Amino acid sequence: MSRELDFLFFKLLISHRTAEKSLVEISELQTTLVNNLATQSAHIDQLVADSFYTAENVGGGNKQLKKATERKSTAKYVFYASCGLSLFLVVWDLVI
Questions:
Q1: Per-residue pLDDT in tens (0 to 9) along the chain, 96 residues
Q2: pTM metric for this prediction
Q3: φ, ψ for residue 72 (rounded to 5)?
Q4: How far apart are CA 38 and CA 32, in angstroms?
Q5: For residue 64, what are the CA distances in angstroms to 21, 35, 55, 69?
Q6: Could you say which DSSP state residue 1 is in?
Q7: Alpha-carbon distance 12 to 6, whole Å?
Q8: Angle at 24 between CA 18 and CA 30, to 5 degrees
Q9: How far apart (Å, rounded) are the C-alpha atoms in residues 31 and 25?
Q10: How far apart are the C-alpha atoms of 58 and 64, rounded to whole Å?
Q11: Number of H helices, E strands in the chain
Q12: Would you give the distance in Å from CA 36 to the centre of its chain?
């Protein structure tokens, strides 16, 4: 009877130690998970802030592009004048 009781106690002790190791491992994993989630949350906050900044920049860029298209462009007139002069010179060369 005493041997059976000792064996049952020993089995219970082993089960207790296994459960304790499992609880310690679960606790460590939970701590790691919490740390990773905190880091991930900080990164998400940074991404949200960056997206607002990007939206503002795109809006400002669109306004600048609209203003640029409404302005008369000197470069466009120089280009057309250069094309016209080049065409004139090519035709002149062919005629003469």
A1: 788 888 888 898 899 999 999 999 999 999 999 999 999 999 999 999 999 999 889 988 899 888 888 878 788 889 999 999 999 999 998 887
A2: 0.52
A3: -75, 135
A4: 10
A5: 64, 44, 14, 9
A6: -
A7: 10
A8: 135
A9: 10
A10: 10
A11: 2, 0
A12: 17
Q: Residue type at 75?
A: A
Amino acid in position 33:
L
Q: Which two tokens stand for residue 88?
A: 């004139």
CA separation for the pair 91, 76 (Å, rounded): 23
- DSSP-assigned letters across all residues of 49-68: HHHHHHHHHHHHHHHHHHHH
Place of tokens 């310690």: 24
Helix (H, G, I), strand (E, B) or coil at 74: helix
Classify residue 63 as exposed, middle or buried by CB count within 10 Å of its CB (0-12, 13-18, 19+).
Answer: exposed
Grouping H, G, I as helix, E, B as strand and the rest as coil, residue 32 is helix
Q: For residues 37 and 60, what is the distance between their CA atoms, to the nearest angstrom?
A: 35
